[in-house]
Every structure is written in C-alpha cells, then in structure tokens.
Amino acid sequence: MTAQAALKTSTLHAATAASAPAALRDLNGIVHLLTCGSVDDGKSTLIGRLLWDASDLYEDQRENVRRSGRKAADSDLPDFSMLLDGLVAEREQGITIDIAWKYFDTETRRFVIIDSPGHEQYTRNMASGASFADVAILLVDARAGVKKQTKRHAAILDLVGVKRVVLAVNKMDLVGYSEDVFRKIEADFRTLCWKFGFWDATAIPLSAVYGDNVSTKSSAMPWYTGPHLLEHLEKAPSRGSAEGGTFRFPVQTVLRDGQDFRGLAGTISSGSVAVGDSVTDALSGRSAKVVRIATMNGDLKSATSGQAIALQLDVDIDVSRGAVLSTSEMRPVAAQTVEARLVWLSETAFDPRAGYLLRTVTDLVPISSFEIKALLDLETMSSHPSTKCGVNDIAVARISLGRSAAIDVFSEISETGTLMIVDAITGASMAGGVATADNAKSDAPGDGHFILTREMLANGLCRDLSLSANDREEFMRRANEAAILLRAAGVSVAIEPPPLVDDGMDPGL
Questions:
Q1: Which of 341, 354, 394, 448 is the most exposed place for a label (fewest CB within 10 A)?
Q2: Class of 3-18+242-326 in CATH
Q3: Which of 3.40.50.1220, 2.40.30.10, 3.10.450.40, 3.40.630.30 would CATH assign to domain 333-439?
Q4: Alpha-carbon gap, residue 508 to 476, rounded angstroms
C-alpha cells in the first residue's frame, strides 16, 4: 500500500492539496450565525423571516408555508418559524428542541444559521451550537428585557469564545415601537457585556413578524439610525480558517504503508507548517524535522490551519493519537493540573466520588481528582464558592490528571484549550468548557492515590512488549486503558510520567 493509499483509508477525508487553498478562502467568506435566547422570544420566527426576505427559497417551500394555514402571532402573515422547526415534537410544542441548521446566501456573504433551543432544559444543545458560531444573535422580548436565561446564554457564548454578539430586541411592535423601552434594554445589555470579553456587542430593535429592521430599515422606528440586522451581519468577519497563529497539530492517528512511510495524521488546528520545519512533541519534548507533507492527492510544500495532512518526520519519535506537535519555542503545557470554566451539561449532578475522564481535541485522559471551586451567580454575574454543580450550572473547577496532556490556555490558543468531561463508565458527556490555567506540576497525591509505575507495567501488563516504536505506542495505550478502568472503579490513579530522555528501561512511556 502506498502512502497516499494509507491516507485515503484513514478517517481524514478532507480537502485535497489542489483545492485546499481555494476551499479555505471560501470558508473565510462564510459566517456561522447562532440564534439564542429564552423560550418564545422569537428565534425561529426571526430566522424564518430572514430566509423569507433575503434568501433564494424555492417557491414550493414558500407555498408549503402559505398553505399550512399557520399564522405568525396575531397577524395575517405566514408562520415563518415553519422554515426552521423541523422536528414533529417542536411543531407540536411550539418550541425549538434540537439545533436546526440552515444555509442562505446574500449578494456578499454566505450564512450558516444555527438555531439553538431557548428552553433551559436544552441548554446543552445551545452550548453545542455556540461552539461553531462566528456571531451570535441573542434575542430578548421587548416586553420582558434581559432574563436569567439571557445571562446564562451570554456566559456560555463568552465561555466558548464567541466574540461578536447582536442583541436583537424583538417584538417591538408589541410595545408600540417605543424608543424608551429599547434604550433601557440596551443599557442593561451594555452592563451585562462588561462582564464578558465580547469584542463587538450591538443592540438592534426589530419585529421579526413584520420584518422591521430585519432585512430592511423600519419606518416605524425613525429614532433608530443604526444598521438593520442583515446589514450588520453582512459586515461581520468570520473566524474562518485563519493562517496566522501559533502552530498546533493534534495527532489523530499514525499511518503506515507497510514499508518506510510513517505519517502522523491530523488536522492543523492553528498556524502553519512547511517541509524542513522542526516540530516538537509537547509531552516528551523530542523534536524532528518535517520531510514530507502528504495528502490524499499528493504532497505539499506547506500546509496551514484547517488542512488535513500526514506529516512524515526525519526521526520516528514516539508519537501517537493524543499528542500535539508544535514549534519548540511555543509548546503547549504538558499539563498535570488544569483550572477550567465549565458548563455542566448532564442531568446527573457532579459527584466527587464518580469516575471522570478529560477529553481534549484528540486525547482522552484519566482524571485523578476533580474539584468544583465556584459557581457563576446568574443574577449578580459574580462567582460564589461552591462544591456542588448541577445541570446548566457554570462552574470554576480544578482538575488533576492521571497523566500529562498537551493543553493550552483557551484565551491564548482556543483550538487546544477546549475540554470535555466524560463519564468513565458510560462515556456520556458531562460538561464542556475551557482551560483558564494549566500547570505541569501535579497536586500532591491524596489518600488512596494509586500510581501506575512504568516498572510495574513493564513487569506485568506489558511484559510481552519490546522496545520497538510500535510496542512503545502499545505500552502507552495499555497504560492509559488500565488507568481509565481503575478510575471508573473509583480508584484515584496516576500514570508515572515518561522520561524526557531514554533511560534504558524496558519499554518505557
């Protein structure tokens, strides 16, 4: 099997070498747009109105909405939300449950719309959708203003790195298009934004049902001189696939052709790499030079963020899934402890005695200890000490890992600073969040803390393995699996860290 054939059989069915630069340019023109807010604030109606007014809907889609007989609010206009509410349960209950994805083009931009649930019960779905967004439309009902759920959604947007937010003050028709009502809500929104790291926060008064300030200026609100919603969105930049930034390459798998080719396959999460560059494994500190960048349709001289590739190095350093390659000067921390901000997604509350795993971009790491330090109070937007955490809570946590993992602080490099907490037994996602601090030093082991030493593993579970590169990877895999099983059984466990230089031990980590 050739190196290209090996790459084709991997899970990385991504852009080809010839089309990748063009594809990346196209992606930079796409805006991923999230709508969020409380129940009945009009999210689906607003996006339906945008699709109705500004997109190239097929005539049969328009006719289906007209023939349904459903009307928008107390008007004679069609129920535009039908263009978004795809699930039977949603249509029966009149709420959004799952995330709905829609696409439409204007003359200048392409939009991917992510319509997220507003009900508190489905906050986990909103958090999932927010992780893809470039811009968020945060809706509020003009009659109610900023609610607790609005604050929760704003906190989640900040947590997942959405930097551009539009406050859509909807249903202005129901308050007589009052400027005073809008200005008060706008002031509350400004106060809320001071708590978070938004780069751009704009408030726009509108009526989704009647189309006021949605895709055209409203004659009913002459006092508002800003842009209408679509005009504002068309000027919003996309996060896209930026070529700049610090090089990070999370390894997804190792490819071989049965001969001399050994490629480290993955997708560049940030920065760029070229043939001849020196790359370093963040955990071991070992370095090698890139001698080849392989893709499904041929080799490249260089590659950049967003491209799926396989790197062949001049030295076969012990790297497998979960490793992160970087430059030697700007390495991620080989973290043993992590400070994190999390949104708890599971109906099952946090249990300090339960077994949890930490999932990074490509790694799965046993957690030796997990402590909730504080919760965000959504009324005052301040943190207060707590050791408990339940569904939809936003928490500050300290996590000690069973072995080192390559992790960046999210505010510095978001791609390798995102985290998931996974139940060790069921594999269910319990929480999602970001690393706010990381430390290569581990916490002092507590009572009952079990250490899986390399010597113990080499003389037992891994005694059949040799010193070959393949067997050293298998050694690490078995050690990790053993730690996961022990943690799932309630045993606080850590894996002895590998040496930074070869120590001659039969086979080492």
A1: 448
A2: mainly beta
A3: 2.40.30.10
A4: 8
